[in-house]
Amino acid sequence: MKRLGVVLAACVLLCAFRPVLAQGEQDPHVLQWYYNPNGGRYAHIDPKCASVSAEYLPLKRMTHALEPKRMPCPYCAEATLVFTVSGGSAKMPDLRVEVYQTALKVPEWEEERVYRIHIADTDRPAHVFSDLLFPSMEGGDGLVPLVRMEDFNFDGYPDLAALRAQGASNVFSTHFLYSPGDGQYYYEPVFDALSAYTLYPEQGVITNSIHDSAATGARQVYRIGEGGRPMRYRDASIAYDERSEGQKIRIKVTEYDSAGAETVLMDAVREPFADNADYRESERKWLALLYEGMPESVVKSELGM
Q1: Could you say which of 72, 129, 175, 211 is the most buried, measured as most Cβ atoms within 10 Å of its Cβ?
Q2: Biggest alpha carbon–alpha carbon distance for the chain
Q3: 43 pLDDT more than 90
Q4: pTM of the complete model beyond 0.90
C-alpha cells in the first residue's frame, strides 16, 4: 500500500502538467525495439538483454515498428501473454489488444512490473501500431481488467486505459489516446489522476474523485478541447495541512487555463470537521466553486439532484 500511496500523491499534485521531453529523449511509454546487427532473429526491448552474448551488447536501435522478419525476444519482450481484449468503437470495431509481461526494468517506474501492449486492427491488417509500454503493480487476474477500451476524449475512437494500481477505494491507470492523424496511440499524462470518473460526452466534460480518508480526498473536472485535447479545468483538494503538522484541514480549489496556468479560487485552513453536518456545510461551499459554470445536467448528476 505504500507504493499505491506514492502513486496517489503524485496524481493529485502533478498530473496537471504534461512532461516535456528534451531533444533526443525517449518517452518510456513508446516501445523502442533493438536488434543484433551481427545476426540473430529476435527483436529486443532491452538494449542489454541478458539472452544475448556480452560481445554483441549493447544492441542496435531499430524503428518503433517491429520488423516483420524478426520475432519478439522470448526473454525480454514476450515473457508471458497475460491479457487479451477485443472490441473498439463504431469507427474502429475490430481492435485486438494483447498484453505481455516483460523482463524490462525502467528506472522511472522503480520496481513496478513492465508490460508490453501489442495492438492489431483485424479490419486493417496492414496497419502497424507502435507497441506501448506501461508499469503496473497488478497482474492480469485482478478485479479490474489490465487494459480497457473507452473513448476518453469523445472523438469516436477507442482509447486505452492500462491498469497501474488498485486499492480499496482508488484505481489508477495509464491512458493512451488514439490519434486519427497518424493512426497511433500516445500516452496522455493529463489523465493520470483518473480514478472514480464519470464521462459526459455530450457536454465534453469528465469528472473524477479520489478518496484518501473519511474526510480527505480530491475532485477534478476535465474538459475536452478542440481536436479532442484533454485539459484539466478545476480541482478541489481536501487534505491535512502539512504546515500545521496535520493538525488542521486545508481546502483548496484551483482553476487552470488552457496553458496550465493556475488561478486559486479558494485556499482555506480550518480545524478538523466536528461531525458529518460540519463536513457537509463545508463541502457545499467548495463544490459550488468547483462546478460553477458547468452544464446544468453535469451539476445535477454530480450533486445527486
Answers
A1: 175
A2: 72
A3: no
A4: no
